[in-house]
Amino acid sequence: MDHRSATTDPTGLIEFAGFRLQPSRRRLTRDDEPVRIGARALDLLIALIARAGEVVGKEELFAAVWPKLAIDESNLRVHVSALRKLLGDGGGAVPLIASVPGRGYSFVGAVTYGSAGPPAVAPAERSSIPMLPVPIIGRDQVVEEIAGRLPRRRFITIVGAGGIGKTAVARAVMAKVAADFRDGVRFVDFGVLSGPALVAAHLASLLRLPAAGTQPLDAVVAYLQTQNMLLMFDNCEHVIEVASEIAERIVGAAPEVSIIATSREPLRAMGEWVQRLDPLAVPPLSPTLTAAEIIGFPAVQLFAERLHAANDACEITDANAPLAAEICVRLDGLPLAVELAAASVALFGFARVVERLDDRFKLLTKGRRTSLPRHQTLEAMIDWSYQNLDDNEKLVWRRLAVFAGTFTLEAATEIGHAGGEDFDVADILGNLVEKSLVAIDPRGNDFRYRLLESLRLYAFGKLLEHHEAACVRDRHARYFYERSLGSGDNWVETPSEHWLHAHSGDIADLRAALDWAFSPEGDPVFAAKLASASAPFWFKLLLVPELRRYLERALWLAHDQPLIDEAVLMRLDIALAHSIFHTLGPLSEVGKSLESALALAERSADVSCQLQILWALFGIYSTRGDYDAMMPWVDRVHAMIDEHPELPVEPLYDRIAALAFHLLGEQQKALRHAEAALHHPSIQRRSRRDGVFFYDHKTATNSHYCRILWVTGRAEAAQAVVRATIADALTIDQPFALGFFLVHGAGPVSFWTGDLEALEAQMALLRDVASGITFNVWQSGGRIYEQTLTLLRTAGEGRYSWRDLPADEVAMTPFLAQSLATFDWRLLCPELAAETGAGAVNWCTAEILRAKGEWVLERSGDAASQEAEELFRHSIDLARGQGALAWELRAAASLARLWRRNGRAAQASDLLGGVYVRFTEGFATPDLMAAGELLAELH
Questions:
Q1: Which domain holds residue 765?
Q2: How far is CA 373 from CA 54, 76, 524, in A?
Q3: Last residue within a domain, chosen from 502, 531, 564
Q4: Are 379 and 372 in contact (CB under 8 A)?
Q5: What pLDDT, on the 0 to 100 scale, is given for residue 3?
Q6: 744 and 801 belong to one structural domain
Q7: Do residues 434 and 497 both lie within one domain?
């Protein structure tokens, strides 16, 4: 565009709408008759017509018409009104002067010059790109891509939601490629126009073309045929059909003209290449984020730049970095929203803005005065898009606001028809995507959809305005109840990749559905059903603490709701038991919930569910170290399997019996049951199911088998089972079973055999496995083992005890405390020592007796020799009776060392040698190596 003022051209003659203006002579005529016009009005007309097609700011008009005077804005409005009246809007439907609220005014009439044509334009003046107020942030790659495609594509539309930065990107591209166009670049802002009837005339005026009657587009196309030029069509969405027609005509007829358009939806014109613009990347949320960690994300960079511009004393620090990240994330990285939020932070502070983000349309209202009105507040920007929708699009879009997360086409169709209407939701959804009001979240061959949070909050406000929220939320909750019912009976199994692909986006909507169902507007009976049905999602997506709160609330409501089905109550009890166990450990509440569920399962004769509950009760009592209370559940499992041979659990009894007898200290019985389970024909039919109830039989049985092998003196066989089981479990993708094995089988064997390098590798694998499958139990056990390993390595011969280990870990159960005491006698806790002194006997009692003997010797020295000898003798006798050769060797070595100090070396040699010779393997393990060295010294 020619930016040279008309007043600088003494021969210039400007014609428009039947008028002729000679700025140098300050003369305006119509039909060769002078027009009476005041000096200020004439100055105003000259200032506007000199920049026809552009918005001239109020401050610029004040400077041109009232230089050096302080004038109230109302004076400008009065003079513009008078000028419009004088010009009579050209006598046609097209106004000559358009108001641009908040910015200024624009002369939009067609302008032509006298016979000399428009004044010559110097090369440096052949651009109408408005200067960027600030550098563009986070868009370097997309600017490069568009600039690189432009020579080949010629017509590129930048599409995205309002406020996402389309215009800024287009301007950056134009600035980058401007030198490549002989006839320059032209910026055409359609946003200043009130409707499509003005578009062609506006473009003709901008190009300084003579008036062409009622067909200005023909003149535009004819002119551009000889031009090598880049046009930027900005803000096309409200004049989309006309903009599409014009772009298509120009691209087809003017081979050296290229077009960059910006719009909230594609123009759908021939030859168009669409470039969708995504929000700026945002950091992950974490309370420990630092400023250095988040500043690399474009949304944060923009936020920081605008924050500093608003108040140079404000900056992102480590203290406020988590809040800055939360602001950017909750605003979806939408540049306009981020800019407005930065301005608000400069006024109110980080914490206050975060608190008020749910009311963001009142908070984010401080846009730049030079912006279009719809870009000065977040609400105005979204309202512009909403008002351009048809009635069905408005209806469906506001209903989609009920989705808290991503949603499928199926879900959109269900909710879109909440009022029973008969229209094609898929077609409407496609339109909303094109108009950038719904975003696509592609996942492989499937698509999910979402509303950016700011758009969703606006649309939900419209849903409330139309009094549709209750109906739509009810439809939404019932849809996700039905979807939950299809997730499978084994609701605590490890999710498959397919399941995660299909359902991982549902949890936000399940949360919203449950919150609504439990609210006063909801239905408590339905809330209990939904909590029960949705349990698989919460378990599989590792959100068990949150599930537990919903379950407790549902069971509390059930006391006053007799209409809740007993099957629902049973599932609630089972889910609550496992959610408590996997977050807080084997508390008494776990057993109570399971026994309540068992009573309901027995009443309904649900055999499969009874078996699962019995199995779980066995696990709870064994973990709690209450081995006597464990056995009745084992016997009931045995009886139930005998009564129902049709149940597909053939090796189950032998598998849990192996663990039960191992824990009771009956190692030979345990060995027989473990081998029976492992030799069962069905053991090779590996389970594809994996979870709290459904550990793979082979992997789980080997967890007990390798322990039994080591305790009975077969260290090398135990290590071989560990290596083979890990390799096998990794090939069949059984993370629950593998996590169990690493904590209860591999970890202890590695401690006992002194293979600490293998233990480190196993704990690294456990971190990997546990991070994707469960909640606290396996991770917690791994943390305890890693801290134990560090303690043993760093303490050396120094003093350390069980107090140096974390007692508040979920996995620190009595069973694990017993295991720790067998890794090193210094880790024996007083409670275990007291229980053993009271006569309790279990799998590690012999080793705890030995540990007590070592402990009294360290504390009292030779004065405790008699007490220690009695403890060592008791340990040897008990271990021999249990078939626990490993414990027997340790106790014999402790007693032999004591006897050697007391001058009884021959007795010591006979005792230790008699145990040592019964071993057939494991001579490179620490216990046997120490025993061999001691025997050599005794000889």
A1: 650-812
A2: 16, 19, 46
A3: 564
A4: no
A5: 35
A6: yes
A7: no
